[in-house]
Amino acid sequence: MKLYFVSAISCCGALILLTGQLSAMGRAPAKEGIAPRQAQTVQPTQHVSNEPERSVASGAKPKIKFDHKEYDFGDSIGVDKIDHIFTFRNEGDADLVVDKVTTTCGCTAALVSEKVIPPGKTGEIKTTFTFGGRKGKQTKSIYVYSNDPSDSKVTLTITGNIVPPFDVEPASVMLRDSGDMSSKTVKISQTMPEELSVIGIEKKLNMVETALKEEPPVDGKKRYSLEISLKSDVPVGQHFETITVITNSSIKPRTEIPVRISILGDIQANPSRIYLGSVSPGQEIVRQFTVTNSKGKPFAIESVEVDNKDFKVTPDAPLKAAVSHAFTLSGISRAESGGVRAKVVIRTDYPKQEVVEVSAYGYVRKGSPTSPTQMPAP
Q1: pLDDT, tens digit, for every residue of 200-227?
Q2: Which residue in 51, 62, 99, 109 could disulfide with 92, CB within 3.0 to 4.6 Å?
Q3: CA-CA distance, 22 to 36, in Å (whole number)?
Q4: How is 174-231 classified by DSSP, letter by letter?
Q5: Which DSSP symbol is given to 196?
Q6: DSSP 135
Q7: Rounded to 5 degrees, what are φ and ψ at 179?
Q8: Which CATH superfamily groups domain 64-163?
Q9: Is there a contact between 357 and 271 (Cβ–Cβ < 8 Å)?
Q10: pTM over 0.70
C-alpha cells in the first residue's frame, strides 16, 4: 500500500503543493508498452514580497501586550516637547509583525525595535509630542497595526496639560492689505508666579510696525498688548515675518510670533487662479478674466505674456488707461495626459504694482472632450 501526501506551505504569499506518487490500492496495472501516468505538479504563481516570513505552525498566533497604553505627562512648564517610549511584549506563540505606526497631528512615533518580534520578546515605540504653541489640556493618539488576529490595531494615548511660562494670544498672526486685516493685536499675559516683564521686540524682515503697551494687571499678574500692523511699502505677494518677544522669563526668555502676510495690491485679477477643468487632448480651452484697480484709478497695460506656447491672451497690448481691463485666455491642450499649466504676466504703468500675475491650471485626460462653456468657474 502506497500513501500520497498533500502539504500546503505558506511562504511570502505563495502556495506550494507538494505531492507524492499516486498509486491507489487495487488499481489495474498499466498496459504493456504504455508508461504509467505521472502525478502532475502544480506550479504556483510566484509572488515576490518584502514582508517577513510569518508563523507557519498550525494554530500558533501572535499576541501583542503593552506595559501601558496611556501616558499622562502632567503639567508641562517651559518645554517645547515631550518624549516617551511605549514597551510591548509578544505573549503569543508565533512571530508578531508590526506593520505600521501612525499618529495624530503634532505627534510623531517610530518603531525603534525590530519589526518582527519572536514569542516572549519585547519591542519599543518611541513617541514625540511637539507642542508648537499649544497650551492647556492635550490628548494625542498613536495607532499600532500588527498581525495579532485579536488586536490588530492598538490605540495608545498621550495626555497632559501644557502650561506656558506666559500666554501669547493669538500665537500667530495673518495680515492682509484689505479691510481690517492690516493690523492685529496680540495679548501677552503672565501665567507664572514670577513677575513678567517684556524687555524688547525684534522683527526679522521689518515688514511690520509694532507698538507695545502695558495693560492693567489682573489678579496681580502683568499683561501687555502688542499691536502689529503692515508697513505701506510691503511688495505684492506672500510673505512670512517673525516677531520675537524678549522677556525676563527664566524658563523661556524668547518666544516667536509667526506673521503671515498677503499683499494683493490695488490692481487685482478676477479670478487670480483660473481653473481650466478636465480636458481631452486637442480640446480648445477658452477662459475670461479681468484686472481691476480697487481704488478706482485708471492704469494702462504695457505688455501681456504667457509662459505656455500653447496659449495666448487677447486683446494684445499695449492698452490705453482704464479702471478695468478684460482678457481672454485661449489655447489647445496638446499633451496626451497630465497637468496643464500657464502663467500670464501683465505689466502695467501703475507705480505701486507694475506686474500682475494670473495662473491657470487643469488636467488632460483621454476621453470625450468637455465643452469650455461647461467647465466650472473657479
Answers
A1: 999 999 999 999 999 999 999 999 999 9
A2: 62
A3: 11
A4: EEESSGGGGEEEEEEEE-SSSPP-EEEEEESS--EEEEEEEEEEETTEEEEEEEEEE-
A5: P
A6: -
A7: 60, -140
A8: Immunoglobulins (2.60.40.10)
A9: no
A10: no
